[in-house]
Amino acid sequence: MQQNHEKVALVFGGSRGIGASIVKRLAAGGYRTAFTFVSSEAAAQALAADVDADGGTTLAIRADSADPGEIADAVARTVERFGRIDAAIVNAGLFRMAPIDAATLADLDAMLAVNVRGVFLAIQAAAGAMNDGGRVVTIGSNVAIRTGMAGASIYQFTKAAVAAMVKGIALDLAPRAITVNNVQPGPTDTDLNAGALDLLAERSPLKRVASPAEIAGLVAYLLRDEAGYMTGSSVTIDGGFTL
């Protein structure tokens, strides 16, 4: 594993599921890590304790990705603690199901605030504090390619927006050699899918769902030196779900 003992990563939405696996994977690879959380304080503190017990260094920051001020504060606190940011992973997201005739304005505004505006602002803030040659990775979804179910139209178009956003921001940051890529997981074994894992596994060509560690592994690769020529891409990791 590539060691990164002088590097710092900030994970937006890092206390549970895929985000927590990313924090653990990067910490194991030598990154000093900061991560944000909103409601899962117990999970956040447990994750920080686990990382510290394994010899890593991490900082848990309460920050709502729907709040521009808290996004900026998370970046400032990371720089204050660690002195720099080399990688930003934007995993924070909000998922609400509702068909078009039942979706509310509150649902629409909430998902836009976190899944689109929050992603843009997190990248903007982190890149402003990032060293040249840094890395940005967003966590999108394979629903940007294929929904597969009714009631997910708002969530789908927010994730499609992230895939498009990454292309434009990659061009903006290319002069600084900062790469920007989007990882699009399919069904993954997290609490979001806890009640549907068997059904989702049956629908998969590989007859299983992903582990969060598999998604974290792809993120870790995109931060490596070997991935320095890859930018503006959306990479789907879904076991063939969208084939």
From TrEMBL:
Which Gene3D superfamilies would you find in this protein's record? NAD(P)-binding Rossmann-like Domain
Q: Which InterPro entries match?
A: NAD(P)-bd_dom_sf, SDR, SDR_fam
Determine the domain of life of the protein's source.
Bacteria
Q: Which family does it belong to?
A: Belongs to the short-chain dehydrogenases/reductases (SDR) family.
According to UniProt, the name of this protein is Oxidoreductase
- The record lists the organism as Sphingomonas sanxanigenens DSM 19645 = NX02
